[in-house]
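User: Hi! I'm working on a homework problem where we have to compare a predicted structure to a textbook description. Could you give me the structure for the chain below?
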Amino acid sequence: MNSYDIIKRPIITERSMQVVTDREGNEIKKYTFEVPKTVNKLEIKYAVEEVFGVKVAKVNTMNYAGKLKRMGRYEGRRPSWKKAIVTLTADSKSIEFFDM
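Assistant: Happy to help. Predicted structure tokens:
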């Protein structure tokens, strides 16, 4: 599995964009990605460093269970997924993909 397979997509929501700056307006450099359920924090760290050319300080991960959905009398389930919040070092440049 290469680095581009580990980072599936960035998660760009209102809440994830608020994490990028703290209450005083200083830049914290936290970015959120969807990753496969099988990867660990070290693999996520090396993938982000290789793809974006930055230094990672910390990686937090969360597992989400797929929701149960119904269409009439039929039930289905959305897939489970994993979210990674990556914190960059203070001297690292920001990821320009998230700059708006």
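For your comparison, note the following. The chain has a mean pLDDT of 89. The chain is about 20% helix and 35% strand. Good luck with the assignment!
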